[in-house]
Write a structure and sequence with these properties.
The chain has ten helices and ten strands. The chain is α/β, with parallel strands linked by helices and about 270 residues long.
């Protein structure tokens, strides 16, 4: 939810200018998820996430805009049964002049993604490794836009290293692009080296980190929270983020243990 709320906010902020933008998704998934499906019911994650937030009144604008996009994917706005992944959220926001590049390596997921967007020429689906695509496809023709890097993090420390090796040349090729990197938080100590790299070695002048913790980050055996590192965030984007982070922490955290953090690693 943090990832998708941030994504909606970034795209909308960039659309303050009429010139075309490009959305690039490195790990796009299948784009659309049925929360009634067996796998979704097995994990039950949505019951503690989107279903809980859907009933909250007077949301800050960033979260309200995000929930409107989710509701638009459902026949009944009061019952969320279909959850849009990042590609579907992006599609709902793209203007006629905007474009999207969606990368997904898994054959079945890529096939589902191609089927979902077969009739929309604004979105191009590539069955390929997303990290390699950053090197091959950046900068986009539009020269403005946002890149979402959202890997599966099967090996936490190893994934951070892979992100670093892909992000450095991407920034060199497209230094003005906005990059949003999602990461899980199990233990704070696992994230600190990545933050240090972003602050001192990535070569970015402005890096903003937004995190939501559902419980103390003190065990590697569970997901205790997550973060979004935003390179080149739009002007004053942190002002829209803070109230959204506070609401997520308050309503999704365990028994009053939720908390949020908003930190400039470089800049502003």
């Amino acid at each position: 939810m943090l990832k998708h709320a941030v994504l909606v906010g970034l795209i909308q902020a960039l659309q303050a200018k009429p010139t075309a933008l490009c959305y690039v998704d490195s790990h796009a998934g299948r784009g659309r998820y049925d929360l009634r499906a067996e796998q979704a019911e097995k994990t039950g994650e949505h019951h503690g996430g989107i279903q809980r937030l859907a009933g909250v009144a007077a949301l800050p604008p960033l979260l309200a805009d995000y929930l409107r996009q989710v509701a638009a994917c459902n026949a009944d706005a009061e019952a969320v049964t279909i959850y849009p992944g990042s590609p579907l959220l992006a599609q709902s926001l793209l203007r006629e002049q905007d474009r999207a590049i969606l990368c997904e390596l898994h054959p079945e997921e890529a096939a589902a993604l191609k089927a979902l967007f077969r009739d929309d020429p604004r979105l191009a689906v590539h069955q390929r490794d997303g990290y390699g695509a950053l090197k091959a496809l950046l900068p986009p023709v539009q020269r403005r836009g946002v890149v979402l890097i959202d890997p599966p993090f099967e090996a936490q420390a190893g994934e951070f290293a892979t992100i670093e090796s892909a992000l450095r040349p991407a920034l060199a090729r497209w230094p003005s692009g906005v990059y949003a990197i999602w990461y899980p938080i199990k233990q704070d100590a696992d994230v600190v080296p990545f933050h240090r790299w972003l602050a001192h070695e990535a070569g970015a002048a402005r890096v903003l980190v937004a995190e939501v913790l559902l419980r103390p980050a003190d065990t590697p055996l569970r997901l205790n929270g997550c973060g979004m590192a935003i390179v080149n965030p739009p002007w004053r984007f942190e002002q829209a983020l803070q109230p959204a982070l506070d609401v997520l922490a308050r309503h999704l955290g365990d028994a009053g243990l939720g908390r949020s953090r908003l930190t400039w690693l470089a800049g502003p």
